[in-house]
Design a protein that fits this description.
With 289 residues, the protein is an alpha/beta fold. It contains 13 helices and 4 strands. The protein has a 4-stranded parallel sheet with strand order 1-2-3-4, with helices on both faces.
Length: 289
C-alpha cells in the first residue's frame, strides 16, 4: 500500500472514529513523515491517547500493528516518490487549480479503493445480481439524498443488460415495497456515511424477509454493513471545503461500472446483439445516439 493510499484510507475512516482516534488520525494526516520516526509511546503522548488506542487504530486500517503501519508509511518516503503535503482547496484558487486538486483527491481515492475493495466480494456482488436476474428475483434499490443519483445510474446500466430493478423516490412507498421482498430477492443499498436512519430501517426489513443484501459504502462504515451479505467499501478523501460529496459519487459510480461490465461479460454475445437491435431501431425512428 502506498503512502497516499494509507492517508486516503485514514481520511475515509475519520467520520467513523471516536474523538481520541480522530485526534490520532488528524495528527498522522498533518505530520505523516514525522510519524515514521515516532515510537508507539511518543505518538500516543503527542496525541494524548493510550497506546492500546493507537494499536487498535492501526489494526482498523488493516495492519498487524503500529510497527507494520509505520513500515508501510515510511516505504515511499525513502524513495521520495510522493509529496506528503496535504492538498487543500483555497478560496482564492483559480478554476484550473481547483480542477487539479479535485483530480488529485479523486486519483488518490481510486488508488486507495483498490485495497479496500475485496476481490471476492466484488465478484460475488456481480454474481448475486446476475443470478437474481436469471431467476426472476426482485432487485430492490435504496439510497438517500445524493445517493439517488447513483441509483438512477445503476438502473440505466442494468436496463441495458435487460435487468429490471425497483426503486421508489418516496420513502413510504419504498418501505411498503421493501416489505414485499421474498427469500433470495436482492436488496442493494448505496450510502456514503450511512447516516440516514431510513437505510437502516430498510436493511432491517430486507434482512427479516431473508433477502440477500449488498451495501456499497465508505471504508470504515461497518455499522450499516453488519446485516449485509456483501459490503463493497470505497476509500474516499473529499476536498477540505466539503460542500458536497464529490469524490464519493465518482468512486461509487466506478463500482457501478465494474459491476455492469462484469455482468455484461457473462452474456457478451447476446448483449452485443441487443445493442445492435436497439441502435437499428433508433436509426429507423430517426433518433441519433
Amino acid at each position: 500500500m502506498e503512502n497516499n493510499e494509507i492517508l486516503t484510507r485514514i481520511e475515509s475512516l475519520m467520520p467513523f472514529l471516536s474523538k481520541s482516534e480522530q485526534k490520532l488520525g488528524n495528527y498522522i494526516l498533518t505530520h505523516p513523515k514525522d510519524v515514521t520516526d515516532m515510537s508507539t509511546s511518543a505518538l500516543s503522548q503527542a496525541c494524548d491517547i493510550s497506546e492500546p488506542t493507537l494499536i487498535r487504530f492501526t489494526r482498523r486500517l488493516g495492519f498487524q500493528g503500529y510497527k507494520d503501519f509505520k513500515l508501510h508509511l515510511s516505504a515511499n518516503f525513502i524513495s521520495n516518490q510522493i509529496d506528503s503535503t496535504p492538498v487543500k482547496v483555497n478560496l482564492n484558487d483559480s478554476a484550473i487549480e481547483i480542477y487539479r486538486k479535485l483530480a488529485s483527491f479523486t486519483i488518490n481515492s481510486l488508488n486507495s479503493t483498490l485495497n479496500t475493495l475485496d476481490a471476492n466480494d466484488l465478484e460475488n456482488a456481480a454474481n448475486y445480481i446476475y443470478v437474481a436476474a436469471k431467476q426472476n428475483k426482485k432487485i430492490f434499490l435504496s439510497g438517500m439524498g445524493a445517493s439517488t443519483v447513483l441509483i438512477h445510474e445503476f438502473q440505466i446500466k442494468m436496463m441495458r443488460l435487460n435487468i429490471q430493478t425497483i426503486f421508489f423516490e418516496d420513502i413510504h412507498l419504498r418501505l411498503e415495497a421493501c416489505a414485499n421482498l421474498k427469500k433470495n430477492d436482492l436488496f442493494i443499498c448505496f450510502t456514503t456515511l450511512g447516516a440516514s436512519k431510513e437505510n437502516y430501517e430498510l436493511i432491517d426489513i430486507a434482512h427479516e424477509r431473508k433477502a440477500k443484501i449488498i451495501v456499497i459504502t465508505q471504508f470504515g462504515n461497518s455499522q450499516i454493513a453488519e446485516k449485509a451479505d456483501i459490503a463493497l467499501y470505497t476509500s474516499i478523501i473529499e476536498n477540505n471545503l466539503r460542500l458536497t460529496s464529490q469524490t464519493s459519487i465518482i468512486l461509487q459510480s466506478m463500482v457501478i461500472d465494474v459491476l455492469f461490465l462484469t455482468i455484461a461479460c457473462k452474456d457478451y454475445a447476446s448483449i452485443t446483439n441487443s445493442v445492435k437491435d436497439f441502435r437499428e431501431k433508433f436509426k429507423q425512428l430517426g433518433h441519433l445516439i
